[in-house]
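Lecture notes, part 5. Sequence design as translation. It can be helpful to think of inverse folding as translation between two languages: the language of shapes and the language of residues. The source text, in structure tokens, appears below.
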């Protein structure tokens, strides 16, 4: 789609607002800016959803706890949302077939709190573990090393190793766990090959078996890890089934790995391409929290999140009935000029305004504190070790991954 969109040209569909559209993949805001200016709330018949791109509307919707999240609640016309439940047996308890990402109350309000309680307690004291994992990844890199891919060497392994350490995965099984983790991430790829689908399903089954086996082992011999925390909460009366624990532990693994990898990779690339901002971080590592928040605003890992109307309502001047879907474009909201001054400027000294990179409300990303911690440690320690790192070819276009609804790099070739 051309930036010079006319009033007569058709509005982009949901599918054109993904990496499947080469123009969007190259520069999402060349598509999103004209859309937000021309029609910030519009009905996309192709996906059966209302697309929202204005910060005010997006923030109001994601923070509205009365709205639904479960695609089973979506009207039949909402084909993009209904695709998530095409093979779901509606007679089964919903919490036994999906994670908290798609659950509504009362199940969501029952399952999420004990998970969050255990996870946040771990995050609050896991900084030394994260630092050790980041330092080990840095030790494997060498100053003066020729061109190499920083994604595969640094950004990809850190989140997987961190969550494995928090869960309590034995060191001798770490390689196997990492392989399973990378295979199940294919669940986000609608264009995966049949071979990748087989690998994904096999890895999912292996993870289910692993979690079942390990949770039972922790009941017999507790350790200092998240799996022990979860079975202990269950034993103390938390209303969580075995299926619910396994499903949500797998979801934590899948959701946190991909997006945190992208957060770290996007952060490194932005700092390398904005040397004045990098200089601020090198001069004062204490600003790393602000750096991470600006990365999240400027180049968030996730494009959108959806909500479903639970009652008659109106958003952005558009009426909705129960069951109608709203796709809130987090990426567009985070660069809304009505909220962020000079929104296309990457500025780590920017006056803070709350971004929506993690969504909001009852379904705000449960892994946000861990993602922030990993990015803060990774970026500060990386540039303390390699302040003179540079891109291998500054003129080369970024190697953006083609996975719809996410924004991250396939490769980040650098010279240390």
């Amino acid at each position: 789609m051309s930036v010079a969109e006319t009033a007569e040209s058709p509005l982009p569909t949901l599918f054109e607002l993904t990496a499947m559209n080469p123009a969007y993949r190259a520069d999402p805001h060349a598509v999103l800016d004209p859309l937000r200016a021309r029609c910030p709330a519009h009905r996309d018949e192709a996906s059966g959803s209302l697309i929202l791109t204005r910060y005010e509307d997006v923030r109001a919707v994601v923070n509205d706890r009365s709205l639904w999240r479960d695609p089973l609640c979506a009207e039949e016309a909402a084909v993009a949302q209904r695709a998530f439940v095409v093979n779901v047996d509606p007679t089964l308890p919903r919490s036994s077939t999906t994670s908290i990402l798609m659950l509504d109350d009362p199940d969501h309000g029952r399952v999420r709190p004990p998970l969050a309680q255990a996870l946040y307690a771990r995050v609050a004291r896991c900084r030394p573990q994260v630092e050790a994992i980041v330092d080990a990844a840095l030790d494997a890199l060498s100053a003066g090393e020729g061109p190499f891919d920083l994604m595969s060497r640094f950004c990809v392994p850190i989140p997987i190793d961190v969550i494995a350490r928090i869960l309590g995965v034995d060191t001798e099984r770490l390689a196997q766990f990492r392989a399973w983790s990378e295979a199940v991430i294919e669940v986000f790829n609608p264009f995966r090959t049949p071979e990748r689908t087989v690998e994904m399903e096999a890895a999912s089954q292996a993870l289910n078996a692993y979690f079942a086996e390990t949770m039972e082992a922790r009941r017999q011999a507790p350790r200092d890890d998240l799996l022990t925390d979860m079975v202990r909460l269950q034993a103390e009366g938390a209303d969580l089934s075995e299926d619910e624990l396994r499903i949500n532990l797998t979801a934590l693994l899948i959701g946190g790995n991909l997006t945190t990898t992208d957060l770290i990779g996007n952060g490194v690339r932005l700092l390398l391409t904005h040397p004045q901002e990098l200089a601020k971080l090198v001069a004062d590592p204490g600003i790393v929290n602000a750096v991470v928040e600006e990365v999240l605003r400027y180049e968030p890992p996730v494009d959108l999140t959806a909500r479903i109307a639970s009652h008659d309502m109106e958003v952005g001047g558009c009426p909705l009935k129960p069951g109608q879907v709203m796709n809130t474009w987090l990426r567009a909201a985070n660069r809304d000029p009505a909220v962020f001054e000079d929104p296309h400027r990457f500025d780590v000294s920017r006056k803070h305004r709350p971004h929506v990179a993690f969504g909001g409300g009852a379904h705000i990303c449960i892994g946000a504190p861990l993602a922030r911690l990993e990015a803060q440690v990774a970026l500060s320690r990386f540039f303390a070790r390699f302040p003179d790192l540079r891109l291998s070819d500054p003129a080369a276009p970024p190697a953006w991954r083609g996975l719809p609804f996410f924004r991250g790099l396939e490769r980040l070739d650098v010279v240390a």
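The translated text above is only one of many valid answers, since several sequences can fold into similar shapes. The chain has one domain: 15-415.
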